[in-house]
Amino acid sequence: FDSRDGVIWYDGEFVDWKDAKVHVLTHGLHYGSSVFEGERAYGGEIFKLRAHTDRLIESARILGFKIPYSADVIDAACRETLSRMNLVDAYLRPVAWRGSEMMGVSAQNNTIHLAIAAWEWPSYFKPEERLKGIRLDIAEYHRPDPKTAPSKSKAAGLYMICTISKHAAEAKGYADAMMYDYRGYVAEATGANIFFVRDGEIHTPTPDCFLNGITRQTVIELARRRGLVVNERHILPDELATFSECFICGTAAEVTPVSEIGPYRFQPATITETLMNDYMAEVQPKPAAAAAE
Ligand code: PMP
To answer: Which CATH number does the domain housing residue 204 bear?
Structure first.
């Protein structure tokens, strides 16, 4: 991934993709002092860019560091990265981290870096898998107690258990894994939030120890716009047997139907399909006239 053509925005300037490097003694690499975003551009516009930028700044604040650029500068840098890469439909990855001046747990004076890369990332899951629903394993790791980890931060360190869980799932032939939380409630997938349908109503876990995803919030809004009931609540594992539909959602995953979670079976149907289509319509850039209506 590091040997592509193109440019990456790096601390205020564009550098060649191949030269966008960090030192091996970077604090972010040793101690996980790194936060990131995942954004998608559709038709040349980054969907909910300011919400992502605000979350990036907030993620860093939670980890105790301040990104040395304003939200306006970061937004402009994201847009310029997209245009310099000649991309219209793409994925963007801003990442911020503590640098390499000091080594040790404490690194108060290390430079805070920010980089932004963009590339084409058509579908997180294979299209054919997506339509019939993907299969999820049940992860061994649980989402940690907010007292144990900074769960509101999109911090690189929190992805350690996600990568372990997703690799374990893939080794068993699953596309991804569903994680329970520290209390044993249903939480989310390794990089996306989760939704269920029963008797025409939607149920989704309360995001009190994992990200309240920007896609999740969008999907809830779209569902309510359709007059659908959305219940945000704690969901027990036993309930998985009672749901008819299931889908996951996130910036990369968009709305992806789920057909299996371990021993439980789901049938992607009307509500999942409706929200999949509504989401794809919602992310398209709005013509100025329509937006003003
Ligand atoms: N949970 C996790 C663990 C994620 O990595 C993501 C993707 N950022 C989400 C949920 C969904 O967040 P969003 O919709 O803001 O992309």
So the answer is: 3.20.10.10
Q: Are residues 196 and 275 in the same domain?
A: yes
Give me ligand 1 centre to Cα 154, in Å: 8
CA 68, 70, 73, 74: dihedral to nearest 10 degrees? 80
* Whether residues 101 and 141 fall in one domain: no
Which of 119, 139, 161 is the last residue in one of the domains? 119
| Whether residue 216 has its Cβ less than 6 Å from ligand 1 | yes
Instruction: Please give the average per-residue pLDDT across 18-31, as a whole number.
Output: 97
Residue nearest to atom 5 of ligand 1 (CA): 191
Domain span at residue 59 reads 7-119
Maximum distance among all alpha carbons in the chain? Answer: 57
292 in any annotated domain: no
CB-based contact 198:160 (threshold 8 Å): no
**Binning pLDDT at 50, 70 and 90, where does residue 289 land?**
low
Instruction: Look up the pTM and report it.
Output: 0.95
Enumerate the active-site residues: 154
Residue nearest ligand 1's atom 2 by CA? 191
Separation of CA 103 and ligand 1 centre (Å): 31
Mean pLDDT, the chain, whole residue set: 95
The answer to whether the CB of 94 is under 6 A from ligand 1 is: no
Rounded average pLDDT over 101-129 = 88
Task: Count Cα neighbours of 245 within 13 Å in the Cβ-side half-sphere.
Answer: 24
pLDDT digits (tens, 9 = 90+) for 164-209: 999 999 999 999 999 999 999 999 999 999 999 999 999 999 999 9
Q: What angle do CA 159, 165, 169 make, to 5 degrees?
A: 140
State the ipTM, two decimals: 0.99
